[in-house]
Amino acid sequence: MADQTNLARPYAKAIFELAREQGDLAGWSDQLELLSIIAAESDTLSFISNPQASDQDIVDLVSSVAGDNLSSEAANLVRLLVRNGRVDVLPEISRAYVVLKDEAESIIEAQMTTASNIDDSQKQQFAEVLQKSLGRTVKLDFDVDEELIGGAVIRAGDWVVDGSVKAQLEQLVGAIGR
Description:
The protein has 178 residues and is α+β, with helices and mostly antiparallel strands. It has two domains: 2-102, Peroxidase, domain 1 (Orthogonal Bundle), CATH 1.10.520; 106-177. Helix content is 63%, strand content 14%. The protein has helices at 2-22, 25-40, 42-49, 55-66, 72-83, 90-104, 120-134, 165-177; strands spanning 107-114, 137-144, 152-156, 159-162. A four-stranded mixed beta sheet has the order 2-1-3-4. A hairpin with a 2-residue loop joins strand 3 and strand 4 (159-162). It is elongated.
């Protein structure tokens, strides 16, 4: 995975720069997501690894599945990746591109795990508080983990706040055990 990340990064940076010049960060994000889905499909991976499949066969397959959803630049990207034997890196290119895009747009992805379900108004309130705290637009995903007992854990990049009852009990046990 680290190898694919290293391979993907220069492609993602180049695509990001092109997208920024074109003023189409969202459009490129959509195209890369589509290409990522196509490239990660088991049938596509099998076809790509078939030694009898020519580069043009692979380009034709990806292009036919994508249909009219690719710009000429995205189609050129497919040809380049096929020629370089990197079609399988598309999912990682897409992920790396989204990180660059979100950074440029001051967006951060966050994950909030609670001990039980919370309603939509509470989710909205948490998102607003996080946005004020972090000074960025927050894409907040919610998850439930009953092992937390109560409270919540919030992760946003390297920032983690563990306000769960489970963590508090673990701290108490650690303090008693000293």
